[in-house]
Specification:
The protein is α+β, with helices and mostly antiparallel strands. The chain has 2 domains: about 45 residues, Uridine Diphospho-n-acetylenolpyruvylglucosamine Reductase, domain 2 (2-Layer Sandwich), CATH 3.30.43; about 210 residues, Uridine Diphospho-n-acetylenolpyruvylglucosamine Reductase, domain 3 (2-Layer Sandwich), CATH 3.30.465. The chain is built from 11 helices and 14 strands. The strands form 4 sheets. The chain has a 5-stranded antiparallel beta sheet with strand order 4-5-10-6-7. Strands 11-12-13-14 form a 4-stranded antiparallel beta sheet, with helices on both faces. Strands 1-3-2 form a 3-stranded parallel beta sheet, covered by helices on one side. The longest helix has 19 residues. It is globular, with a radius of gyration of 18 Å. About 45% of the residues are buried.
Amino acid sequence: MYQTTYHRPSSVDEAASLFTKGSDAKYLAGGHTLIPVMKQRLASPSDVIDLGKIKELVGIEPTGDGIMIKAATTHHDVASSETVQKAIPALAYLASLIGDPAVRHRGTIGGSLANNDPAADYPAAVLACGATVKTNKRSISADDFFKGLFSTALEDGEIITAVSFPVQDKAGYAKFNHPASRFALTGVFVAKTPAGDVRVAATGASQNGVMRVPAIEAALKANWSAAALDNVKISADGLMNDIHGTSDYRANLVKVMAQRAVTAAG
């Protein structure tokens, strides 16, 4: 390692102030991305600002039309929350699949979204549910938040404070995970609103990160059933092609995982 200054602020305002004072400051959430790249000397921040102990960033609250999960809430807390299990069971299930127990007890929803790994689970739920990402400066709709591989709409120094999820009439998640990392080789979240609108998002498949799947959305809006997707063909264009799976393989996984997600949703 190399010299860096570690900070543990007690408020979001203090964290933002510390960020502006550092020559190359970085925020630390769960640490599953920043710490490894620092160890490999791929990042050398002048200041590390730990957001994990800021009380206002931890917790899960019901809202008038959904739930709000604060940014430093761990995957374990999302998975075990009765509030989440009641409002959006599929979201609790998704959180239970992330990594292993050590990862789930340390990793946070805000850190996952800020990093926007192309194989992360939460982006699929946020995009499919039409959630809103709240920061210390503004509110950003899911459709505007994800900008591509490891890229988001966050400005330099902006801090995710919470994610607001509207309640869904039906929702389900299924993923084919990498056996070692447990990241999604392909994962699909399906959601149907009380008004009948359908949104479907896939993670781990596209070269540009999380994506909507219009062909599956259209089929499920017409007929909410796994069988409705039997004849849907997903294009392999723009999908990842690597040692873990070809683009054609991932295209088929998108459909298969969507069918499993719909079955899970009921």
